[in-house]
Amino acid sequence: MLMTYREALNQAMREEMQRDDRVFLIGEEVGYYQGAFKVSKGFVEEFGPERVRDTPITEAGFTGLAIGAAMAGLRPIVELMTFNFGILAMDQIVNNAAKVRYMSGGQLSVPMVIRGPGSAAHQLAAQHSQSLEAWFCHVPGVKVIAPATPYDAKGLLKSAIRDENPILFIEAQLLYGTKGEMTEDEYTVPIGKADVKRPGHDVTLVAYSKMLLLSLEAAEDLAEEGIEAEVIDLRTLRPLDVDTVAESVKKTGRLVIIEEGWKFAGLGAQIADSVYSKVYDDLDGPIVRVTGEDVPMPYTRPLEDLAIPDKARIIAAVKQVL
Amino acid sequence: MRQTSHMNDFMSLYRDMLLIRRFEEKSAEMYALAKIAGFLHLYIGQEAVAVGCIAATQPEDYIISSYRDHGHCLARGSDPKRVMAELFGKATGLCKGKGGSMHLIDVERNFMGGYAIVGGHLPLAVGLAFAAQYKKEDRVVLCFFGDGAIPSGHAHEAFNLAALWKLPVIFICENNRYGMGTPISREMVLYKDVVERAKAHGIDAEQIDGMDVLAVRKVMQRVIGQVRQDPQPYFIEALTYRFMGHSMSDPAHGQYRTREEVSDARKNDPLCLLKEHIQKDGNVTDDVFTRVEHEIETLVGESLTFAEQSPFPTATSLHEDVYIAE
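^ Those are the sequences you sent over. The predicted structure of the assembly is below.
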């Protein structure tokens, strides 16, 4: 059965809200508007406005409210219209959600999910095109998930809603309409486990979210040239499944990391460091990163295309290490 | 000597305020001896607000506060031994030494914590009230903060959401006239009437004398009853004064306020006001006050001994409590 990424998220939330009364959805336009990207379609009709709570444009306020509600035993899902607006809630996420468990010596917990799209769509310009996962991954106390496929999106979102910790769940506008194979059975996908999406033996490509799809396309092209790339989907960014990547690199001897975010202090640097310490003896070349350019996102299409990794750059990076 | 239950009640308020006063005086001493480190923001002078407000609550009501939180925590009934141990950074502290002075948390008593980003805990308070409403629980939330939090965006976002959704949260602004060293007149245009800020959000608000514990409690009994009956936010501006500096690194007077101003304010000491009231109204002798002094002195002494003798947390606890394992 094929299903879109959007429908997969919708199903995950619906099933979890049916299963557990403590779960509620809160955010801008999640109710009567059906979600800015229609992810919560039909929710206000099914669960009512108490559990599908439209908010004013007040990210710090409603994210903080959700943290307080989680401290008091509820299990909020906060929808950020995009993660760019999550910057407004950064203080609540970093200073409260991530820390109250530790500061309280384990007395309090914040079981909540903050979800919404990150990364660039098409020509949304500098303030609406950012990949901020490295910011969140830097903070102990939160988990960060960025699924690429509908199957993983559903399974991981269900796991995230059931998790006892605060979770940033980063989707992508350009993924919402993508389709993938789904099972009819109830399932979850474990947090913190990477997935080998394509086996290979010549080079390891590590990516997540949209860049995973791009990496798979690059791998297909490379295969035509006789280069078999193993493509690993991290799925969870914190905690990072270093072992799965290391196992692959031990086999291939080469590692290319693909991310859409900015290069400097980007997530790829951390992945390279974590993996290198486990595989330095097995490497046959330098670890190469394919990243977004270190510029605010330009509006105009030719420049935007230059700022975001593309298939050609992934292929070039692979050839650089082979 | 026989006392009326009325007088016992007043003495109990006096005792609670005296505990905060003596506990903090001892903390300041320990800070000077470097037994307590970091930031230590004393509540001395403001005791009537925490004690009067919390005396009007039920145990299931949530209390949440800022970094100047010792008073609220003790008024809520947390064990002074475990509070002192927390200030000492010991494993027996309320938060196992991981929170410290600014982050006292005692969930068993629904004391949901001290938070140290000014204004940042107001949305949390609204969330606690949201949970109470969502679960149809008969709880109200008391949220304490200083006048310095009022201009913050967090505060106004919290006020708006609370008013919009009729959440049972009582915002208690302890106006001690200074946001750290900046007088309120240099912080806000509407400084003469902080309550106007709340009213602008559609929240009923009133100003009270935060030095008079009986007045504070009386107002809060009415307000809490009202909010419990008909859930919606309420705003209290309690006029008060901190007798000490902003924190231990700030002298009580000097740069931004004069010795005269501080000594004038001290004439309104909430403990003296209540003591005078009790002495005037009731047939309470000095012996009774002496006994309470001794009782508190012993309690604070025991807290100190407990904190001193408790172990520091072990190295293994460093990585505990970051995540909950599945």
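Chain B has eleven helices and eight strands. The radius of gyration of chain B is 19 Å.

Shout if you want it in another format.
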